[in-house]
Amino acid sequence: MTNATSALSLVLLAAAALVLPPPSTARRRLARLVAATAPRRPDRRAVRWLPAGRAGGPRGGGSRGGPAGGRAVLTAVVVLAVGGLGGLLAGPGGGLAALALAGVTWRRWRAGRARRARAAATAELADALAALAAELRAGAAPARAAEEAARDAQPLAATTLRALAATTRLGGDVAVALRAVSAQHPGLAAATEWLGRAWQLAERHGIGLAEVVDAVRRDLDQQLRRDQRVRAHTAGARLSAAVLAGLPVPGVLLGQVVGARPWHVLTTTTAGQVLLVLGTGLVSAGLLWTARLVDRVVLP
Protein backbone atom coordinates (compact mmCIF):
# COMPACT_ATOMS: atom_id res chain seq x y z
CA MET A 1 0.00 0.00 0.00
CA THR A 2 3.06 2.30 0.23
CA ASN A 3 3.12 2.92 -3.51
CA ALA A 4 -0.61 3.63 -3.53
CA THR A 5 -0.23 6.08 -0.64
CA SER A 6 2.58 7.86 -2.46
CA ALA A 7 0.44 8.07 -5.59
CA LEU A 8 -2.44 9.61 -3.63
CA SER A 9 -0.07 12.16 -2.09
CA LEU A 10 1.19 13.15 -5.54
CA VAL A 11 -2.39 13.53 -6.81
CA LEU A 12 -3.38 15.77 -3.89
CA LEU A 13 -0.22 17.87 -4.22
CA ALA A 14 -0.85 18.30 -7.93
CA ALA A 15 -4.43 19.40 -7.25
CA ALA A 16 -3.21 21.91 -4.69
CA ALA A 17 -0.61 23.27 -7.12
CA LEU A 18 -3.28 23.78 -9.76
CA VAL A 19 -5.76 25.64 -7.57
CA LEU A 20 -3.52 27.58 -5.17
CA PRO A 21 -2.76 31.18 -6.22
CA PRO A 22 0.79 32.12 -7.27
CA PRO A 23 3.17 33.77 -4.78
CA SER A 24 2.72 37.44 -3.99
CA THR A 25 5.74 38.42 -6.14
CA ALA A 26 4.24 36.74 -9.17
CA ARG A 27 0.88 38.38 -8.50
CA ARG A 28 2.52 41.82 -8.33
CA ARG A 29 4.32 41.24 -11.64
CA LEU A 30 1.09 40.08 -13.26
CA ALA A 31 -0.79 43.09 -11.89
CA ARG A 32 1.83 45.48 -13.33
CA LEU A 33 1.66 43.74 -16.71
CA VAL A 34 -2.13 43.93 -16.80
CA ALA A 35 -2.10 47.58 -15.76
CA ALA A 36 0.40 48.42 -18.50
CA THR A 37 -1.55 46.70 -21.26
CA ALA A 38 -5.14 47.37 -20.14
CA PRO A 39 -7.27 49.56 -22.42
CA ARG A 40 -8.43 52.97 -21.30
CA ARG A 41 -11.67 53.14 -19.38
CA PRO A 42 -14.62 54.17 -21.54
CA ASP A 43 -16.67 57.26 -20.91
CA ARG A 44 -18.99 56.51 -17.99
CA ARG A 45 -21.75 58.62 -19.49
CA ALA A 46 -21.92 56.32 -22.52
CA VAL A 47 -22.15 53.09 -20.54
CA ARG A 48 -23.72 53.99 -17.21
CA TRP A 49 -26.82 51.92 -18.06
CA LEU A 50 -24.67 48.76 -18.20
CA PRO A 51 -24.53 46.44 -15.16
CA ALA A 52 -21.73 46.85 -12.66
CA GLY A 53 -18.43 45.49 -13.91
CA ARG A 54 -19.00 46.22 -17.63
CA ALA A 55 -17.79 49.80 -17.62
CA GLY A 56 -14.19 48.89 -16.97
CA GLY A 57 -12.17 46.79 -14.63
CA PRO A 58 -13.10 43.74 -12.61
CA ARG A 59 -15.71 43.67 -9.92
CA GLY A 60 -14.70 44.69 -6.48
CA GLY A 61 -12.54 47.63 -7.59
CA GLY A 62 -9.67 45.49 -8.83
CA SER A 63 -8.27 44.87 -5.36
CA ARG A 64 -5.28 42.59 -5.19
CA GLY A 65 -6.05 38.99 -4.33
CA GLY A 66 -9.77 39.40 -4.96
CA PRO A 67 -12.61 36.89 -4.76
CA ALA A 68 -11.02 34.60 -7.37
CA GLY A 69 -7.93 34.13 -5.22
CA GLY A 70 -10.05 33.45 -2.15
CA ARG A 71 -12.11 30.86 -4.02
CA ALA A 72 -8.91 29.17 -5.23
CA VAL A 73 -7.57 28.90 -1.70
CA LEU A 74 -10.90 27.58 -0.42
CA THR A 75 -11.03 25.04 -3.24
CA ALA A 76 -7.52 23.84 -2.42
CA VAL A 77 -8.39 23.46 1.26
CA VAL A 78 -11.56 21.52 0.48
CA VAL A 79 -9.76 19.23 -2.00
CA LEU A 80 -7.01 18.46 0.48
CA ALA A 81 -9.45 17.97 3.36
CA VAL A 82 -11.82 15.69 1.45
CA GLY A 83 -9.05 13.67 -0.16
CA GLY A 84 -7.10 13.41 3.08
CA LEU A 85 -10.13 12.34 5.11
CA GLY A 86 -11.08 9.73 2.55
CA GLY A 87 -7.49 8.48 2.49
CA LEU A 88 -7.37 8.18 6.28
CA LEU A 89 -10.66 6.28 6.46
CA ALA A 90 -10.36 4.02 3.43
CA GLY A 91 -6.86 4.27 2.00
CA PRO A 92 -5.78 5.88 -1.28
CA GLY A 93 -8.80 4.47 -3.10
CA GLY A 94 -11.03 6.02 -0.47
CA GLY A 95 -9.38 9.39 -1.05
CA LEU A 96 -10.06 9.23 -4.77
CA ALA A 97 -13.61 8.00 -4.16
CA ALA A 98 -14.26 10.84 -1.72
CA LEU A 99 -12.99 13.39 -4.25
CA ALA A 100 -15.22 11.92 -6.97
CA LEU A 101 -18.35 12.02 -4.81
CA ALA A 102 -17.54 15.52 -3.56
CA GLY A 103 -17.06 16.69 -7.14
CA VAL A 104 -20.42 15.31 -8.23
CA THR A 105 -22.14 16.86 -5.21
CA TRP A 106 -20.54 20.26 -5.85
CA ARG A 107 -21.41 20.18 -9.54
CA ARG A 108 -25.07 19.34 -8.88
CA TRP A 109 -25.29 22.02 -6.20
CA ARG A 110 -23.96 24.63 -8.63
CA ALA A 111 -26.37 23.46 -11.33
CA GLY A 112 -29.30 23.71 -8.92
CA ARG A 113 -28.29 27.19 -7.83
CA ALA A 114 -27.96 28.33 -11.45
CA ARG A 115 -31.36 26.84 -12.29
CA ARG A 116 -33.05 28.62 -9.38
CA ALA A 117 -31.34 31.91 -10.28
CA ARG A 118 -32.43 31.55 -13.91
CA ALA A 119 -36.04 30.87 -12.91
CA ALA A 120 -36.07 33.84 -10.52
CA ALA A 121 -34.57 36.17 -13.14
CA THR A 122 -37.08 35.01 -15.75
CA ALA A 123 -40.00 35.57 -13.37
CA GLU A 124 -38.72 39.05 -12.50
CA LEU A 125 -38.37 39.98 -16.16
CA ALA A 126 -41.85 38.66 -16.95
CA ASP A 127 -43.34 40.91 -14.23
CA ALA A 128 -41.35 43.88 -15.53
CA LEU A 129 -42.52 43.25 -19.09
CA ALA A 130 -46.12 43.25 -17.90
CA ALA A 131 -45.55 46.73 -16.45
CA LEU A 132 -43.79 47.83 -19.66
CA ALA A 133 -46.70 46.64 -21.80
CA ALA A 134 -49.12 48.56 -19.56
CA GLU A 135 -47.07 51.75 -19.94
CA LEU A 136 -46.96 51.34 -23.72
CA ARG A 137 -50.73 50.81 -23.90
CA ALA A 138 -51.17 54.00 -21.86
CA GLY A 139 -49.44 55.90 -24.68
CA ALA A 140 -45.95 56.38 -23.27
CA ALA A 141 -43.00 56.50 -25.65
CA PRO A 142 -40.90 53.31 -25.62
CA ALA A 143 -37.93 54.85 -23.79
CA ARG A 144 -40.15 56.56 -21.23
CA ALA A 145 -42.23 53.42 -20.74
CA ALA A 146 -39.12 51.34 -20.09
CA GLU A 147 -37.82 53.85 -17.56
CA GLU A 148 -41.14 53.94 -15.69
CA ALA A 149 -41.40 50.14 -15.64
CA ALA A 150 -37.83 49.90 -14.33
CA ARG A 151 -38.70 51.97 -11.26
CA ASP A 152 -40.70 49.18 -9.62
CA ALA A 153 -38.83 46.23 -11.14
CA GLN A 154 -36.41 43.91 -9.40
CA PRO A 155 -32.68 44.69 -9.91
CA LEU A 156 -31.97 42.36 -12.84
CA ALA A 157 -35.15 43.28 -14.68
CA ALA A 158 -34.56 46.97 -13.95
CA THR A 159 -31.08 46.71 -15.49
CA THR A 160 -32.58 45.21 -18.63
CA LEU A 161 -35.25 47.88 -18.94
CA ARG A 162 -32.80 50.74 -18.36
CA ALA A 163 -30.54 49.35 -21.08
CA LEU A 164 -33.58 49.11 -23.32
CA ALA A 165 -34.58 52.71 -22.56
CA ALA A 166 -31.10 54.15 -23.14
CA THR A 167 -30.61 52.27 -26.40
CA THR A 168 -34.05 53.22 -27.71
CA ARG A 169 -33.52 56.88 -26.88
CA LEU A 170 -30.15 56.94 -28.66
CA GLY A 171 -31.44 54.98 -31.65
CA GLY A 172 -29.08 52.06 -31.04
CA ASP A 173 -29.43 48.34 -31.64
CA VAL A 174 -31.70 46.93 -28.94
CA ALA A 175 -30.58 43.34 -29.53
CA VAL A 176 -26.92 44.25 -29.04
CA ALA A 177 -27.68 46.15 -25.83
CA LEU A 178 -29.68 43.26 -24.42
CA ARG A 179 -26.90 40.83 -25.29
CA ALA A 180 -24.53 43.01 -23.26
CA VAL A 181 -26.89 42.67 -20.30
CA SER A 182 -27.22 38.91 -20.72
CA ALA A 183 -23.43 38.55 -20.90
CA GLN A 184 -23.24 40.01 -17.40
CA HIS A 185 -26.25 38.03 -16.15
CA PRO A 186 -26.36 34.62 -17.92
CA GLY A 187 -29.65 33.76 -16.24
CA LEU A 188 -31.35 36.31 -18.50
CA ALA A 189 -29.70 35.16 -21.74
CA ALA A 190 -32.67 33.31 -23.25
CA ALA A 191 -35.26 35.85 -22.10
CA THR A 192 -33.34 38.90 -23.35
CA GLU A 193 -32.66 37.15 -26.66
CA TRP A 194 -36.41 36.69 -27.18
CA LEU A 195 -37.10 40.28 -26.18
CA GLY A 196 -34.43 41.68 -28.50
CA ARG A 197 -35.70 39.74 -31.50
CA ALA A 198 -39.30 40.65 -30.79
CA TRP A 199 -38.41 44.35 -30.43
CA GLN A 200 -36.54 44.31 -33.74
CA LEU A 201 -39.48 42.57 -35.41
CA ALA A 202 -41.88 45.22 -34.13
CA GLU A 203 -39.68 48.08 -35.33
CA ARG A 204 -39.07 46.49 -38.73
CA HIS A 205 -42.70 45.69 -39.53
CA GLY A 206 -44.51 48.41 -37.58
CA ILE A 207 -46.15 46.03 -35.10
CA GLY A 208 -47.43 47.53 -31.86
CA LEU A 209 -44.75 47.27 -29.19
CA ALA A 210 -47.28 46.67 -26.42
CA GLU A 211 -48.58 43.52 -28.10
CA VAL A 212 -45.06 42.27 -28.84
CA VAL A 213 -43.84 42.85 -25.28
CA ASP A 214 -46.92 41.18 -23.85
CA ALA A 215 -46.37 38.18 -26.15
CA VAL A 216 -42.81 37.81 -24.84
CA ARG A 217 -44.13 38.05 -21.28
CA ARG A 218 -46.64 35.25 -21.96
CA ASP A 219 -43.91 33.08 -23.46
CA LEU A 220 -41.74 33.55 -20.37
CA ASP A 221 -44.63 32.64 -18.07
CA GLN A 222 -45.36 29.53 -20.12
CA GLN A 223 -41.70 28.52 -20.00
CA LEU A 224 -41.65 28.80 -16.21
CA ARG A 225 -44.80 26.72 -15.84
CA ARG A 226 -43.47 24.11 -18.26
CA ASP A 227 -40.20 23.77 -16.37
CA GLN A 228 -42.08 23.35 -13.09
CA ARG A 229 -44.27 20.62 -14.59
CA VAL A 230 -41.30 18.79 -16.09
CA ARG A 231 -39.38 18.82 -12.82
CA ALA A 232 -42.45 17.57 -10.98
CA HIS A 233 -42.90 14.74 -13.48
CA THR A 234 -39.22 13.75 -13.29
CA ALA A 235 -39.05 13.85 -9.49
CA GLY A 236 -39.68 10.10 -9.31
CA ALA A 237 -36.86 9.30 -11.72
CA ARG A 238 -34.44 11.56 -9.87
CA LEU A 239 -35.38 9.97 -6.54
CA SER A 240 -34.92 6.48 -7.99
CA ALA A 241 -31.46 7.42 -9.25
CA ALA A 242 -30.48 8.73 -5.81
CA VAL A 243 -31.75 5.55 -4.11
CA LEU A 244 -29.88 3.30 -6.53
CA ALA A 245 -26.70 5.34 -6.06
CA GLY A 246 -26.93 4.86 -2.29
CA LEU A 247 -27.61 1.10 -2.33
CA PRO A 248 -23.93 0.09 -1.97
CA VAL A 249 -23.83 1.68 1.50
CA PRO A 250 -26.46 -0.58 3.12
CA GLY A 251 -24.93 -3.48 1.18
CA VAL A 252 -21.56 -2.91 2.84
CA LEU A 253 -23.22 -2.48 6.25
CA LEU A 254 -25.16 -5.71 5.82
CA GLY A 255 -21.96 -7.51 4.87
CA GLN A 256 -20.29 -6.22 8.02
CA VAL A 257 -23.20 -7.45 10.14
CA VAL A 258 -23.06 -11.00 8.76
CA GLY A 259 -19.27 -11.16 9.14
CA ALA A 260 -18.22 -10.96 5.47
CA ARG A 261 -15.94 -7.98 6.28
CA PRO A 262 -16.39 -6.10 2.98
CA TRP A 263 -14.98 -2.90 4.50
CA HIS A 264 -11.75 -4.70 5.32
CA VAL A 265 -11.50 -5.98 1.76
CA LEU A 266 -12.21 -2.56 0.24
CA THR A 267 -9.76 -0.64 2.41
CA THR A 268 -6.81 -3.00 2.93
CA THR A 269 -6.42 -4.99 -0.29
CA THR A 270 -5.28 -3.86 -3.71
CA ALA A 271 -8.26 -5.47 -5.42
CA GLY A 272 -10.61 -3.84 -2.93
CA GLN A 273 -9.10 -0.41 -3.53
CA VAL A 274 -9.47 -0.81 -7.28
CA LEU A 275 -13.09 -1.94 -6.90
CA LEU A 276 -13.80 0.97 -4.53
CA VAL A 277 -12.57 3.51 -7.07
CA LEU A 278 -14.31 1.75 -9.95
CA GLY A 279 -17.62 1.47 -8.11
CA THR A 280 -17.54 5.10 -7.01
CA GLY A 281 -16.76 6.15 -10.58
CA LEU A 282 -19.74 4.21 -11.91
CA VAL A 283 -22.05 5.69 -9.26
CA SER A 284 -20.81 9.21 -10.06
CA ALA A 285 -21.27 8.65 -13.79
CA GLY A 286 -24.81 7.39 -13.21
CA LEU A 287 -25.73 10.45 -11.16
CA LEU A 288 -24.29 12.83 -13.74
CA TRP A 289 -26.00 11.02 -16.62
CA THR A 290 -29.38 11.12 -14.87
CA ALA A 291 -28.96 14.83 -14.17
CA ARG A 292 -27.98 15.43 -17.80
CA LEU A 293 -31.11 13.68 -19.06
CA VAL A 294 -33.33 15.81 -16.83
CA ASP A 295 -31.51 19.05 -17.68
CA ARG A 296 -31.84 18.43 -21.42
CA VAL A 297 -35.61 18.33 -20.97
CA VAL A 298 -35.90 21.29 -18.59
CA LEU A 299 -33.36 23.76 -19.92
CA PRO A 300 -34.57 26.00 -22.78
TrEMBL record:
Membrane topology of this protein: Multi-pass membrane protein
Biased composition range(s): Gly residues: 54-67
Tagged with keyword Membrane: yes
GO cellular component assignments: plasma membrane
Subcellular location: Cell membrane
Type II secretion system protein GspF domain span: 129-252
InterPro entries named among the record's database cross-references: T2SS_GspF_dom
Keyword entries, A-Z: Cell membrane, Membrane, Transmembrane, Transmembrane helix
PANTHER family: CONSERVED TRANSMEMBRANE PROTEIN-RELATED, INTEGRAL MEMBRANE PROTEIN-RELATED
Name this polypeptide is given: Tight adherence protein B
Native source species: Goodfellowiella coeruleoviolacea
